[in-house]
UniProtKB/TrEMBL annotation:
UniProt source species: Hericium alpestre
Domain of life: Eukaryota
Protein name: DUF1308 domain-containing protein
């Protein structure tokens, strides 16, 4: 007895289901390329921890979450259909698989960085009608762009219209024109090139052009480049097999004449299921600081900090011991705080015991967090000190003239106020030297570098120049003394 192999149920639908599952996995593991600003950063992650795995897809890339939800919805619909006992005798359900797969393929292959997926743009006229709640007018649809790429410079729109769909539109248009053309003589009929070609593809192209003109690239007056991916339109199709019409090729030509980059056909399957992309080819940028170095408030505080100048511990454990208190010390601190609170309390009924315990615990936790942060900073100094890093970065400028350090009067005054309140004796001494008038620098330099693990004039920090301000100068804050 011959056994005939069972034919798969709806093989095309099965293929789409597999592809959609691959796309869903690809989206879930997608890591977009995010260009880094030109920042010289040699800091280390002391703790070695990261929360990247917990990043929400919506925060990762606008539109990514809705795309994944749409893919999963189609997967669910397809799976439920194929699980039916009579699925083989039923017509396949309508899904957006072809469109969704094509959009994801464009995301993966578009010029980076991607700004958004599925964003709607409005023309100036539509923007004026955007608020329709009060007027009761019909809301405008806007123009949907499937992928906003190249940092907003490129708009990509995917369209899955087939030849058969356009042929239907052409037949409808021809039927409308028949009566009006009956009155024309043969020599009066317009040629194909002269006739107005109107269809959904061209209307979409015109809408994209209008929206692009009214939504230039941020910070410029330049309109985004438009890429129109027509996945299933074939101007060279066999008329006897797939159906064709010269107006399909003419439609594509008109789009290109409008300045639209028309791309035909579907992308290869392997291009659609890749999960990640590397950064674009590196231009081998060489980042080099200028001779005029601006110091903000945080770096000013770091320059006078004991952490920057003190002798380094030999091990990470020693760094922890310098700042992170032991459990016995924390318990002692809690008991001291508790005793002080209860001893100073005047009205015993005004505050409960639980409130006092919470105060002591909060104090201890805050102290512990601050201590751990200081220990982490010290370990960073052990890896490469701030002054050492600055010296190495600025050494390349030796042939271009002396380096000058600048700051604002506001940053200087805020630094002085902070150090006056919480700085130690050595930190106050360094701040006093750093902000000394640029008359005679010999003594301020000696004062600043005193007891530092770095030699005198390791960096030409003095004189520290102050940027001129258009506002009238406020009375300078008193410089702290040790």
């Amino acid at each position: 007895m011959d056994h005939v192999a069972a034919q798969p149920i709806h093989p095309e639908l099965q293929r789409q289901l597999l592809q959609m599952q691959q796309v869903a996995n690809s989206i879930s593991s997608y890591v977009p390329y995010i260009p880094k600003p030109p920042v010289l950063d040699s800091s280390a992650d002391i703790q070695g921890t990261s929360d990247e795995g917990a990043v929400d897809l919506g925060e990762l890339l606008p539109g990514l979450r809705p795309l994944l939800d749409a893919v999963r919805k189609d997967i669910d619909v397809t799976q439920k259909f194929l699980e039916k006992s009579n699925a083989a005798s039923l017509p396949a359900p309508s899904t957006n698989a072809t469109y969704l797969v094509a959009v994801w393929g464009e995301v993966l292959r578009a010029p980076q960085p991607i700004v958004a997926i599925g964003r709607t743009f409005f023309t100036k006229n539509e923007k004026g009608k955007a608020n329709v709640k009060k007027s009761g007018a019909r809301p405008t649809a806007g123009v949907k762009v499937d992928v906003v790429a190249n940092n907003g410079k490129t708009w990509i729109r995917v369209n899955t219209t087939k030849n058969s769909r356009l042929l239907t539109e052409f037949r409808e248009m021809d039927s409308y024109d028949t009566d009006s053309e009956d009155g024309l003589g043969r020599g009066d009929r317009p040629s194909l090139a002269q006739a107005e070609v109107d269809n959904s593809i061209l209307r979409m192209g015109h809408a994209l052009i209008s929206a692009a003109k009214d939504n230039p690239v941020v910070g410029t007056t330049v309109s985004p480049k438009i890429v129109f991916r027509l996945t299933r339109l074939d101007p060279h199709a066999d008329p006897e097999i797939e159906g064709n019409d010269p107006r399909i090729a003419l439609t594509i030509d008109i789009l290109r004449d409008m300045g639209i980059d028309v791309q035909l056909g579907e992308r290869a399957t392997d291009e659609v299921v890749r999960s990640t992309l590397g950064p674009p080819p590196s231009r081998d940028l060489h980042l080099e600081p200028t001779r005029h170095v601006n110091l903000d408030l945080s770096i000013l505080i770091a320059l006078v900090s004991d952490l920057t100048h003190s002798t380094l511990p030999r091990t990470a454990a020693e760094a922890e011991e310098r700042f992170v208190p032991s459990a016995s010390y924390l318990e002692w601190k809690r008991s001291r705080l508790r005793a002080k609170i209860y001893g100073d309390r005047i009205d015993a009924e005004a505050v409960t015991d639980g409130d006092q315990d919470s105060i002591t615990i909060e104090n201890a936790e805050d102290m512990g967090k601050h201590s751990r942060a200081l220990a982490d900073q010290l370990q960073q100094e052990m890896s490469k000190g701030l002054l050492q890093d600055m010296s190495e970065r600025l050494s390349t400028l030796a042939d271009h003239g002396p380096v000058e350090f600048w700051t604002t009067a506001e940053a200087r005054d805020r630094c002085i106020r902070i150090i006056s309140k919480i700085g130690g004796p050595n930190e106050k001494r360094r701040a006093h030297a750093l902000f000394s008038p640029p008359d005679d620098l010999s003594e301020p330099e000696k004062t600043y570098w005193k007891d530092s693990r770095y030699p005198l004039r390791f960096l030409p920090l003095l004189p520290l120049h102050i940027f001129p301000s258009p506002e009238p100068p406020a009375p300078p804050a008193p410089i702290p003394t040790a």
